[in-house]
Amino acid sequence: MSKEKEYFLGSIVVTGPVERRYEVVDGQQRLTSVSLLISAIRDKFRDDNDHEAETSIRNDFLANVDRKTKEREPKLTLNEVDNELYQELLEDKHAIDALRYPRQSHKRLLAAADCMRKYIDEICEEAPDPEEALHDWLDYLESNLKVILVTAPDDSNAFVIFETLNDRGLELAISDLLKNYLFHRSGEKLEETKNRWLTMVATLESASDDPLVVTYLRHFAMSKYGLIREKDLFGVIKKKVTSKKAALQFSTELSNAAKTYAALINTDHELWSKYDANVRDAVSALNLLGMAQVRPLLLAILDKLEPKKVSAAFKKLVAVAVRFQIVGGAGGGTLERIYSDAARGVSEGKLTSIDDILKGFTTLPADSAFIAAFSVASISKQGLARFYLRMLETAAPGVSGELVPNANTDRVNLEHVLPLTLSDKWTKDWSADDAKAYQRRLGNMAIMAAKANSSLGNDEFSKKKLVLAKSQFSFTKLINEYEKWDISAIENRQLRMAEVAARIWSIK
Predict the structure, then answer these.
(1) What residues does the GmrSD restriction endonucleases C-terminal domain cover (predicted)?
(2) Rounded CA gap, 482 and 490, in Å?
(3) Cα(504)–Cα(392) distance, rounded to whole angstroms?
(4) Which residue, among 453, 477, 280, has the nearest Cα to 393 in the 3D structure?
(5) Can you give the pLDDT at residue 414?
(6) What is the DSSP letter of 188?
(7) 392 exposure class (CB count in 10 Å sphere: 0-12, 13-18, 19+)
(8) Do 73 and 64 contact (CB within 8 A), yes or no?
(9) Which of 169, 196, 368, 396 would disulfide-bridge 251, Cβ 3.0–4.6 Å?
């Protein structure tokens, strides 16, 4: 038990009452957390068959029973997305089918309930008298937990209070600030704005297990207004959205564009059926390259350009991304500015093609710089190395027609000719330092059929080259031309790769 006589939980902002119930504008998470803690205590009494204590806790803290209908009325309800699970957690956590609740917010609620129960179990294990310890906790929560309750007559006033509290130092998530500001500006269109916001969140949560809302909000705003740092996001949008009409329009755009953003993360999304296969492949490549900085520009292009121009633009943007990755020198902040400035130009209608866009990329690596960097590139991520090698095969010397090796690692995977683990036969010709410097060079890597690869291991080069010579892939077969696999051989093969790479990822 805390030694503090009182614990201040912060300010709770509510509106109402309407039909004897208040709506919580700020403080939902804190109230939910406290109720889940009380529910965990109630469950402990239930497990011990103390039904009187169980009933008392439920009636005092969690739910009332309507005198007329005899139905149980929860003291706290959540939004329509989370309330069903929340009420089940308060009723009987063990009866919940977690598969029915796949959303991120559901997982957080379930995790919070588990955390509370674990904490209560630990208290009971450590206490000489567990029952007394639980009653002490309930007494403390009832009498010593303090809040400042701020009651506003309507939503508009409540949102102003919410923002004022933040201005005075209450640290809030940017997404919460923006959400409540849009709600405030929506006036009688509040329910419409709420629905659009919930749709946006649900769409983003279905696309990834990682939290996306703040990243998406920033990328969406950057697609329209140019570079925005996260700390400035709320202020920028507040200046742009100054009326009820603008708030509703902005929330509508947020909801609609969230589907596009979800597609940029999930290449199986139905959105890509409207475009040729090159667009989907480009999105997959940009994700593999880890180029999240380009998403504001992709959003703008998908919103403003026709499908044929989208295909051409995405292909060139992959080339740009590869060149930036290989040559380096452009940090994340520089890339964000380049891409977001271009996104604003597309959104404003000033840039109507990929050629227009690339004219503004003043730091694009030229062929000479790209070839020089590619010829010495080391790649530590195997998925990325496979991507480069697969694409090199599409334009390798002597290849007729289009050949794209299978991306499935069960069929085609990666071979390090100079192995990552050196056998005695390799250490005769390679020092530890040289091996470390060249093992992950692209010139030392090859793609080949998985079955053949599994049989090579760290065999000596004379045996490996016989197997590699039978490969259908040009750059893999090329290895057979070298008598020895030494530094010179790796550098020579990688230079030949670099010259082909400049054609594949051309920006002309």
Answers:
(1) 366-500
(2) 9
(3) 7
(4) 477
(5) 87
(6) G
(7) buried
(8) yes
(9) 196
Overall average pLDDT of the 111-117 stretch: 91
* Element (DSSP H or E) covering residue 414: strand 412-416
Q: Residue 307: is the preceding peptide bond cis (ω within 30°)?
A: no
- CB count in 10 Å sphere of residue 247: 23
CB 160 within 8 A of CB 24: no
Give ∠ CA 156-157-159 in degrees, rounded to 5: 70
Instruction: Kindly give the residue spans of alpha helices, DSSP state H, lying in 328-394.
Output: 332-347, 354-359, 367-374, 382-393
Q: Which residue has the tokens 């002309």?
A: 508
- pLDDT single digits (tens) 157-195: 555 555 555 554 434 467 877 888 898 888 888 889 989
H/E segment holding residue 240 = helix 233-240
Specify whether the CB–CB gap between 155 and 184 falls below 8 A: yes
Q: Is 77 helix (H, G, I), strand (E, B) or coil?
A: coil
Is 35 within 8 Å of 61 (Cβ atoms)?
A: yes
End-to-end CA, the chain: 69
What value does the CA radius of gyration of the chain take, rounded to a whole number of Å? 30
400 pLDDT tier (thresholds 50, 70, 90): very low
Nearest in space to 322 (alpha carbons), one of 351, 360, 355, 282: 282
Domain ranges in the chain are: 7-167, 173-263, 267-365, 385-504
- How many Å apart are CA 253 and CA 243, to the nearest integer? 15
Please name every residue paired with 152 in a beta bridge, in sequence order, or none if there are none: 15
CA atoms within 13 A on the CB side of 418: 26
Residue with tokens 């404003």: 348
pLDDT greater than 80 at residue 72? no
Place 456 in a pLDDT band, splitting at 50, 70 and 90. low
Token pair belonging to 493: 């093969």
Global confidence as pTM: 0.73
Per residue in 122-163, pLDDT tens?
Answer: 999 998 998 999 999 998 888 888 888 878 766 555 555 555
Nearest to 73 by CA among 21, 35, 26: 21
The residue whose two tokens read 């190395």 is: 385
pLDDT tens readout for residues 364-377 = 899 999 999 999 99
- Position 401 scores a pLDDT of 42
Work out the pLDDT band at 465, boundaries 50, 70, 90.
Answer: confident
Q: How many residues does the chain have?
A: 508
- Amino acid identity of 310? V
Residue 136 half-sphere exposure toward CB, CA atoms < 13 A: 14
Q: Are 62 and 70 in contact (CB under 8 A)?
A: no
Single-letter code of the amino acid located at 115? C
Which two three-digit tokens encode residue 23? 């709506």
